[in-house]
């Protein structure tokens, strides 16, 4: 939603204000609006109540418009720019508000709603470090060394809107924990996965606010500091370092910060490698299609050597593509097995917890033994059922074992040939015109050949 055009941003903001606030109606001007747009700084001495009322009104408007994406800086959703704030609130016939500087000063020094990026990073630091090294990691280098060439530093007249960050953070955590988490790996993200999942915020009337990377890092700092989300860097995978983001388990009774282990880093490295392989596969497929197109063009121009050359390049690309697919299949299979093993471990832990609870609840030893025997019988019955299902599946697999890859490829070739062959329409048999005279003669012969009923039968019928 964030647009860089100042005209569009002004128009969108004014439309939102007119729809939500009576005092900002486009057709009429209220006394309250005149007071808001005037220089009310002197009221601080003459009428402190009136001054606070105007400041609080403006504060509520600024926070509300920023939260819903109608009052942001040029590139970032969680920021407002002090230098362009007056232009965004400009109204025809009224001009700009004359006391916004006092409102911003109050939000910075009194309510602490606004702070610069440096102040925010100092208040919400990221404790990212490598356990095996005392040197600064690349993530610390970005955030603790002044030369920030990856995550840019915003100018001093841009301010982080803390209530917006808090609300977005709450929305992200609610969205994350409202999903059915199938395994502990669901709490693990790379930064690219986190951006794909949470870079869009649904606000007023299904308005979508798109968050930049800077906005996401601002939110991650708050998640890390207040919600226990762990952040760490990993070693390079496919030539690029990646960031590990891990949410705490939601089943914990007490809030405990997430801990990123070496296994988590290895899993993230696998995910990063799979992502890189997917990009390589897409690029190779595009090249293969391009060589096929050039082959057809050269063939249409009767340039057989060029067509054969392009076809040979296409086959080389396809060989590389096949190897990439095998590697990708292997790595994704490893990820799937890791996730499955995590789920099995959770099942075992739940069973052990249930057994321990059962022993503690049942005080009598005989009763415990009896209950455990019943549980054992139930498990044996379940095992028998599973064995029967396994035998059935094995029989089905044996029946399908006679099908070879060659048979499947031949069938695929037949399908492709059938698709490429122009379909012939079935001949529709039309009814021939009826010769009326010959048909009447045929009916007359048929009727004359029938035996007429006797007069006796007719008399009976009449009687």
TrEMBL record:
It comes from the Eukaryota. GO terms for biological process: late endosome to vacuole transport via multivesicular body sorting pathway; vesicle budding from membrane. Pfam families: Snf7, WHD_CHMP7_1st. InterPro entries: Snf7_fam (IPR005024). Signal peptide: none annotated. One of its GO terms (cellular component) is multivesicular body. This is Charged multivesicular body protein 7. It comes from Parasitella parasitica.
């Amino acid at each position: 939603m964030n647009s860089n055009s100042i005209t569009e941003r002004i128009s969108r903001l004014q439309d939102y204000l007119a729809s939500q606030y009576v005092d900002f109606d486009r057709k009429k001007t209220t006394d309250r609006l005149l007071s808001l747009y005037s220089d009310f700084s002197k009221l601080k001495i003459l009428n402190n109540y009136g001054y606070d009322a105007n400041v609080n009104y403006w504060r509520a408007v600024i926070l509300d418009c920023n939260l819903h994406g109608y009052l942001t800086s040029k590139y970032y959703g969680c920021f407002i720019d002090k230098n362009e704030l007056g232009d965004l609130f400009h109204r025809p016939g009224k001009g700009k508000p004359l006391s916004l500087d006092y409102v911003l000063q109050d939000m910075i020094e009194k309510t602490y709603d606004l702070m610069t990026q440096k102040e925010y990073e100092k208040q919400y630091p990221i404790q990212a470090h490598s356990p095996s090294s005392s040197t600064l990691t690349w993530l610390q280098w970005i955030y603790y060394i002044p030369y920030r060439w990856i995550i840019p530093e915003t100018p001093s007249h841009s301010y982080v809107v803390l209530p917006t960050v808090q609300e977005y953070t709450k929305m992200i955590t609610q969205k994350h924990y409202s999903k059915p988490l199938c395994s502990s790996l669901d709490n693990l993200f790379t930064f690219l996965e986190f951006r794909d999942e949470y870079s869009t915020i649904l606000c007023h009337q299904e308005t979508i606010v798109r968050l930049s990377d800077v906005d996401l890092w601002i939110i991650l700092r708050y998640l890390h500091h207040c919600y226990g989300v762990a952040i760490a860097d990993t070693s390079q995978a496919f030539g690029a370092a990646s960031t590990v983001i891990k949410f705490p388990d939601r089943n914990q009774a007490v809030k405990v910060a997430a801990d990123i282990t070496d296994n988590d880093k290895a899993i993230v490295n696998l995910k990063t490698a799979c992502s890189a392989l997917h990009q390589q596969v897409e690029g190779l497929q595009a090249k293969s299609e391009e060589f096929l197109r050039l082959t057809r063009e050269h063939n249409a121009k009767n340039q057989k050597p060029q067509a054969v050359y392009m076809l040979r390049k296409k086959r080389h690309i396809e060989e590389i593509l096949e190897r990439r697919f095998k590697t990708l299949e292997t790595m994704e299979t490893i990820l799937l097995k890791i996730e499955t093993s995590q789920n099995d471990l959770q099942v075992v832990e739940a069973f052990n917890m249930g057994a321990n609870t059962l022993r503690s609840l049942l005080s009598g030893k005989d009763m415990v033994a009896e209950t455990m025997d019943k549980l054992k019988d139930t498990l044996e019955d379940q095992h028998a059922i599973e064995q029967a299902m396994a035998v059935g599946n094995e029989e089905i697999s044996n029946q399908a074992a006679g099908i070879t890859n060659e048979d499947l490829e031949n069938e695929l070739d037949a399908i492709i040939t059938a698709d490429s062959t122009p379909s012939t329409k079935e001949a529709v048999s039309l009814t021939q015109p009826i010769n009326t005279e010959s048909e009447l003669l045929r009916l007359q012969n048929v009727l004359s050949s029938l035996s007429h009923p006797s007069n006796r039968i007719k008399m009976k019928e009449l009687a």
